[in-house]
Structures are given as structure tokens and as C-alpha cells.
Design a protein that fits this description.
The protein has one domain: Sufe protein. Chain: A, CATH 3.90.1010.10. 34% of the residues lie in helices and 18% in strands. The protein is built from 5 helices and 4 strands, in the order H-E-E-E-H-H-H-H-E. Strands 1-2-3-4 form a 4-stranded antiparallel β-sheet. The longest helix has 22 residues. The two termini are 27 Å apart.
Length: 166
């Protein structure tokens, strides 16, 4: 079902944990399958200096969370906002159709963390729920094939892991 890249990010997730005093936090969940993601960012000079995540969910949810953190670490906020669900899935070498909602969650959590950071600074950007390329992402739970009974097969709870992991 999953390719080697997805399995690697599931078994060896990158950037798991919490940041001390994050600049922005994004939390999303899918009530259909129970996946929950939290992404925290540290920003310096409009770049994502550090990023951590905690996820409770299936293998694809954990893999997409891990991948999105690798994709945007060191990038500008604008570059990070341009990351779409399709880009996350492509970076992982593809996901099964019924798992595409997981990449929506990862991109949405990232964008919410950036929106939270900007809100804290008093400068939210309108329309940030839409990718900078104009691509509208379905919100969690709105995709055509929501996680039909798949999340119980392979999953982990990364919400209770130690605070720091590379």
C-alpha cells in the first residue's frame, strides 16, 4: 500500500516534538478518521527557522507531517504557504487515493501555523487557506474518499513522544 519513502517517514519521522515558545501553532483534525496534527514553527527574518510536529493518526498522516516539516524548514513564509497537498504527496512519491486527505491535513496545519504567527504579529494575510498557486485544497473531511476504515491498520500516536527529536 505504501512506498519506501512513506514508510521511512512513518518509521523514522523527522522533526517530531514540541518547540519551546513557538511563534505559530497550527492544529487540524479529521473527525471521519480521527487523525490529529499539530505543527509548531519558529520564525526568524520571515523564514521558518525550526518546525516540529505531533500527530495522532495513520502511517500516511505521520509521513505527511514529517515530510512537510522537511519541505519548509529554512524556507520563507511565502515559500511555505505555497506548499500544497499535492506537493506533499508528490514529495513522498505518491499516496493511495484514500490517503490524500492526510496530505491536506499536513498542508493545512502548516498554513494554520503561519496564519497564527501572522495573527500574533497583527498582520494576518487574507486568503491564506488557498495556496499561493491558487489551488484550493479540500478541508479535512471534505474529500471524496475519506479514510474508509483504514486508520486502524497502521498507525502510531506521536502526540505523547518526548519533546525533542531531530
Amino acid at each position: 500500500m505504501y512506498n519506501e519513502t512513506v514508510l521511512d517517514h512513518f518509521h523514522n519521522p523527522r522533526n517530531v516534538g514540541e518547540l519551546d515558545d513557538p511563534d505559530g501553532v497550527g492544529e487540524v483534525g479529521n473527525p471521519v478518521c480521527g487523525d490529529v496534527m499539530r505543527i509548531e514553527i519558529k520564525v526568524k527574518d520571515d523564514r521558518i527557522e525550526d518546525i516540529k510536529f505531533r500527530t495522532f493518526g495513520c502511517g500516511a498522516a505521520i509521513a505527511t507531517s514529517s515530510m512537510v516539516t522537511e519541505m519548509v524548514k529554512g524556507k520563507t513564509l511565502e515559500e511555505a504557504l505555497a506548499v500544497s497537498n499535492r506537493m506533499v504527496a508528490q514529495a513522498l512519491g505518491g499516496l493511495p487515493k484514500q490517503k490524500m486527505h492526510c496530505s491536506n491535513l499536513a498542508a493545512d496545519a502548516l498554513h494554520k501555523a503561519i496564519e497564527d504567527y501572522r495573527r500574533r504579529l497583527g498582520r494576518p494575510a487574507p486568503g491564506e487557506a488557498v495556496g499561493k498557486d491558487g489551488e484550493e485544497r479540500p478541508r479535512a473531511g471534505e474529500d471524496e474518499d475519506p479514510c474508509p476504515g483504514c486508520c486502524g491498520k497502521i498507525g502510531r500516536d506521536l502526540t505523547a513522544l518526548p519533546r525533542s527529536s531531530g
